[in-house]
């Protein structure tokens, strides 16, 4: 079990699959608010197994214990919700 998240990369206009392990979920949930834009730091990137692939991107982002999430208040990109 884990929390699945989708990251929007504004620079190359792509979506990357990410996940938060269930053991870290309570730690990160307060930082994940609907409609907010966040930045992440200190995460792990690995190849996405075809068995768990939910998008076409070849990599995924995994939250690890030093991962930091912070909300972007100013200068946040405009995201088309379509």
Residue stretches low in confidence (pLDDT < 50, at least 5 long) are none
Fourth-level CATH superfamily: Nucleic acid-binding proteins
How many strand segments? 6
Rg, nearest Å: 13 Å
Give average pLDDT, whole number.
83
Strand order of the main beta sheet, please? 1-2-5-4
- The run of helices and strands is EEHEEEE
Largest sheet: 4 strands, mixed
Organism: Brassica cretica
Protein name: DUF223 domain-containing protein
Give the SSE map.
Layout: E1 2-9, E2 14-21, H1 25-28, E3 38-41, E4 44-47, E5 59-62, E6 68-71
Parallel strand pairs: 2-5
Antiparallel strand pairs: 1-2, 3-6, 4-5
Explain how this protein is built.
This is DUF223 domain-containing protein. It comes from Brassica cretica (Mustard). With 82 residues, the protein is mostly beta strands. It has a single domain, classed as Nucleic acid-binding proteins (OB fold (Dihydrolipoamide Acetyltransferase, E2P), Beta Barrel). 5% of the residues lie in helices and 39% in strands. It has one helix and six strands; from the N terminus they run ββαββββ. It has one helix at 25-28; strands spanning 2-9, 14-21, 38-41, 44-47, 59-62, 68-71. The strands form two sheets. It has a four-stranded mixed β-sheet, with no helix packed on it. A two-stranded antiparallel sheet has the order 3-6. The longest helix has 4 residues, at 25-28. The protein starts with a strand and ends in an 11-residue tail after the last strand.
